[in-house]
Design goal:
Blueprint (H helix, E strand, L loop, with lengths): L3 E6 L18 E6 L1 H4 L3 E5 L7 E3 L20 E8 L8 E2 L1 H4 L11 E5 L10 H5 L3 E2 L1 H9 L4 E4 L13 H9 L3 E4 L13 E7 L7 E11 L1
Parallel strand pairs: 5-7, 6-8, 7-9, 9-10
Antiparallel strand pairs: 1-12, 2-3, 4-10, 4-12, 5-11, 11-12
Helix pairs in contact: 4-5
GO molecular function: arylformamidase activity
Organism: Bacillus oleivorans
Protein name: Kynurenine formamidase
Length: about 220
């Protein structure tokens, strides 16, 4: 029987008015039933699915692209390599030169996790909302060349906020059906191992261009 030696929750919490993309309506949580009145509690949530830890599907950028429910479930698990980008400057593009030192550590079908330290900044601040480091076009092209299945980042998006910085990475990745996993909680504990087993299952939302995810990294004995 396989035993888990370590398990890390890589997900950011989703809650009423939680941080999210600046132009989206903030998440709302309401109660349709409360225990004192109904004998049970039932909540209703109104959110953009690209909020908190979530995965993008090609349909997010391409009208004819694959929806999140159309991926085979095997695409959501795999070995993941953490990329140490702690200390990277705000709004700095993550380029090929940042990734190339890991070229011998990744193999086709792997996932990489871009650990920039931005998850520690989560809040209603200018730096968290607008200044996270982001994947450049050339960085995305490197990921496609290496035949990786996915890439995670701890900022609000795989692309940047500033005009022109958002689409390139999305377009390169999603046109090749490589999924971006965004707004992860990536801590330095991930750097204690060279490889992890990642599970990142999105909600099975039919016809959607993305979905919230509960992402965990595991190390087996």
């Amino acid at each position: 029987m396989v035993k888990i030696k370590k398990i890390i929750d890589l997900s950011q919490p989703l809650f009423h008015n939680c941080p999210g993309w600046a132009t989206y309506k903030m998440t709302e949580v309401n109660y349709e039933a409360v225990y004192p009145v109904d004998g049970f509690t039932a909540e209703r949530i109104d959110l953009n699915v690209h909020t908190a830890t979530h995965m993008d599907a090609p349909f997010h950028f391409f009208p004819e692209g694959k929806k999140i429910d159309e991926f085979p479930i095997s695409q959501f698990v795999g070995e993941a390599v953490p990329i140490d980008l702690f200390g990277i400057a705000p709004e700095e593009p993550i380029r090929r030169e940042h990734l190339e030192p890991y070229a011998d550590k990744v193999k086709p079908g792997d996932i990489i996790l871009l650990c920039t330290g931005w998850s520690e900044k989560r809040g209603y601040t200018k730096d968290y909302y607008y200044e996270w480091p982001f994947l450049s076009r050339e960085g995305a092209e490197w990921i496609v060349e290496k035949q990786l299945k996915g890439v995670g980042i701890d900022g609000l998006s795989i692309g940047g906020w500033a005009e022109g910085n958002g689409p390139p990475a999305h377009e390169v990745l999603l046109s090749n059906e490589v999924w971006p996993l965004e707004e992860l909680n990536l801590t330095k504990e991930l750097l204690t191992e060279e490889r992890w087993f990642l599970c990142a299952f999105p909600l099975k939302l039919q016809g959607f261009g993305g979905a919230p995810v509960r992402a965990v990294a595991m190390k087996f004995e």
